[in-house]
Amino acid sequence: MSKKPAFRALLVAALWIGVMSLLAVSYRYFANPALKERVEGAPELSTKQWQELAVSNVRAEPIGFARGSAQLSDENRRQLQDLCADLRNSPQLYVRVIGDVRAAEDAAEAEANLRLAQTRAQVVAEFLSATGISFTRLTVTTAKSANNDGAQTVMFVIGTMP
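Above: the chain's sequence. Below: its structure in token form.
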């Protein structure tokens, strides 16, 4: 008896099992919206929906940056990893990532501060996304600093759809 027919039969059986498994997974994925959402991430929100988020009881401390820098420190990364763990455990949560814009004495400085705040917020959002948080759950914005101590932070507002 030749080994070729036995090998071919084994190969055909393995391919058949693989195709059937793929079909079963595909059916479960498309037939189950909750599974689809978990795989793809939360549904994308409109601007109005972002404004209507109900603030969650999940809190995150602001991320501090060195003066003039948008680089994450090791401590920043640890803080963001903790936030990611909370977000992975609560897929219904959305996060507004807010770059803190410091006051400026002239227009050029104000523009530079705005760009830096935007860059910092974007760096934080990209870190969250790289660790598994869907960009559909994140929005990046800036806001004027509420304090005058020169804080250079990125803050978070975490919420759910009402």
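The beta strands are 54-55, 63-64, 94-101, 138-144, 153-160.
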